[in-house]
Amino acid sequence: MHDLPKISEAEYEVMKIVWKYAPISTNEITDKLLQTTAWSPKTIQTLIKRLVTKGVLTYEKQSRVFVYTPIVKENEYIGQKSSSFLERYYNGDITAMLSAYIENDKLSEAEIDHLRSLLSKRSKKGEPSHD
Amino acid sequence: MHDLPKISEAEYEVMKIVWKYAPISTNEITDKLLQTTAWSPKTIQTLIKRLVTKGVLTYEKQSRVFVYTPIVKENEYIGQKSSSFLERYYNGDITAMLSAYIENDKLSEAEIDHLRSLLSKRSKKGEPSHD
DNA sequence: CCTTAAATATTACGGATGTAATAAATATAT
DNA sequence: ATATATTTATTACATCCGTAATATTTAAGG
Fold it and tell me: CA B28 – C1' C28 distance (Å)?
């Protein structure tokens, strides 16, 4: 369970695009990001480069352009982030987080219903789910 | 809903102590932290100082020592962190986070039961809870 | 082949952070 | 009053991050 590389906030925005559209070229990444950010293309290139250096992305040359593919998987990354988040702020206890949300009326009725159904659908690990 | 000051990871370790034991002096903070970290007392002092500069802590002189009290409240801070975490990694949807945890069998039976009871205990906002 | 437009690589620079060391101030004991 | 032990304040420095600008390489067109 080696630690995944650190991905900064700005880099994460790049990764969201790559995870969604890979394999994807520099220009395609840039175009997508320009729809939601005001970053200079130069900035985006820097971020991509750093992600390569960190081992988050690889690329293949296709004639003169680079086409990128993620090395780090999105669900792994988010999973690790979630664990460390819960560890840091809720002592690793996800029920404590939910508690806090419920206490502070942060959940809508719809969300509560959704959660209930998530929890009822599934009882014991190992028990075959007949869906 | 002004944004709370940013607290770095190391600074957060200091804050956990202050939130728990305030009002608390520099030396007391240092002693507590030395039980769980290998930081130099000088480092700890720097962190405390930065927290004061950032407006996270205040202090009162008591003869020659400073005694600190939090300005930022723990639950507010954790609440804000939780929101931004969910926003970033789960599109603000806490049920998506729970889903992922359930999918990946990250929850024990006990946790699932606990969550179920949290959710059943409370139904609609505004409805008086007769605890 | 050589020029040039387009792509990638290198360099920049200020603020935050981790991690301290050194300097200055000050309360207290003599 | 003064020295000194203790506290707080200032300074340091490398790395990461946000945000680019400049420089170099290279594929493609003439």
Answer: 21
